[in-house]
Amino acid sequence: MKFTVNTRVLREALNPLLLAIDSRVVVPALENFLFQVEGRVARITSSNLSISMVTTVNIERSKTDRVDVCIPARILLDTLKSLEDEPVDFVFDHNLHSFEIISEEGRYKMATVRAADYPKLPVPADSKRIEISKEELMEAIHHTSLCVSTDVLRPAMCGIYAHGSNGRLVFASTDGHRLSKFVTDAHGMEDGIIIPKKAMTILQVLLKDCPTESVELKYSSMNLFVEVGDTMVIARLIDERFPAYESVIPTEHSISMVVNRHSLVDSLKRISLYANRSTSQIQLVIIGDGLRIESDDADFGKEAEEALIIEHSGDDMTIGFNARLLLELTQNHSSESLVMKFTAPNKACIIQVPEKKDSQSLVMLMPVMLNQTA
Questions:
Q1: Buried b / exposed e across 302-341, counting CB within 10 Å, b at 16+?
Q2: Most distant CA pair in the chain: distance in Å?
Q3: Residue 56's pLDDT is what?
Q4: How distant, in Å, are the alpha carbons of 227, 240, 248, 269, 360 from that of 162?
Q5: What burial class does residue 151 get, using C-beta atoms within 10 Å of its C-beta: 0-12 exposed, 13-18 middle, 19+ buried?
Q6: Residue 153 CB: number of other CB atoms within 10 A?
């Protein structure tokens, strides 16, 4: 059984699929790409059981009606990367459970795995659907991915929560120290689902180079199905109850400031170098139209401070933060300036961009107690 395909075409199709293959697998077949070739179309699958990806590739010539076989993923892709952009022949021998790549440079043979050993994928039967613009989905993923927890003991917080609210689609994530919420114009979702962060990251990679203007999310009680171009992403949803995050977001703020984001980020990078390594604690001192950022490490005799000009309303205040978490949140924005809203030194801080200050899109960061040892 034999078919011919261009190395560049196949390489570009397989590259994203490698994202769904783990370095350590429980099922040996999952180290492979599943090839299902029929006529002049190859359907190729990768999976780690939680996330699966399926794409199709048009082949140039085929001398087989149908072939289903598992091919070792990484050695196949590495071989294709080292070959010139040229047509190559794939020759399968089911009796010997092997296949060969034959190119102008040579031949490369490896063992295959039976397609019957590859786990079956879920199908989007009886699924609900909602349509969202590509740009809004990419922004939602960018906005919320940073705050997803990595604590496997709290699985509900290890994903991005998508749910309907007041006729709009909301994405939210939290790790217990910070929280992100992003509201889109999409509508139609009445319930909520928790999508694994890795699945959303894969979607972000695929959407970046896809010319589509909108994306349809199909979901059931157990799985999410999203088609991007020629590739389908299937993700097993996190079957947990997401925390009632809305109740912890402050609704009133007595203090606010507008600060240049670039200046703030640069200052945080420098000041954090002088913070205690174990706590990463810094403090923001807001007085009038000035912001002073301070840190010290008594154990090593280090201390630093910088001053920035801000727009400030409300009382003066001193508040502490973990420098790393604050830096990550401020770097994750792309605006020229940021609005930071405060209630008290022991209450959460809200960070938004000025042009969206009246929207519900925000990030929230919990402060640290300033009386702890620095």
A1: eebebebebebeeeebebbbbbebbbbbbebbeeebbbbb
A2: 81
A3: 96
A4: 18, 13, 18, 33, 14
A5: exposed
A6: 7
| Dihedral angle of Cα 235, 236, 240, 245, to the nearest 10 degrees | 0
Q: Which residues of 18-47 are buried (b: 16+ CB within 10 A; e: fewer)?
A: ebbbeeeeeeebbbbbbbbbeeeebebbbb
The DSSP symbol for 120 reads P
Q: What pLDDT was estimated at residue 356?
A: 56
Question: What DSSP state is assigned to residue 158?
Answer: S
10-residue mean pLDDT profile of the chain (374 residues): values are 90 95 90 92 96 94 80 95 92 85 92 92 89 94 96 96 93 96 89 96 94 94 95 97 94 94 98 94 96 94 96 96 96 92 95 68 92 46
In whole angstroms, give the CA distance from residue 285 to residue 255: 12
Q: By three-state DSSP, how is residue 139 classified?
A: helix
Write out the E strands in 288-361: 290-297, 302-309, 311-313, 317-322, 337-342, 349-352
Whether 227 and 216 have beta carbons less than 8 Å apart is answered as: yes
Residue 273: other Cβ atoms inside 10 A = 12
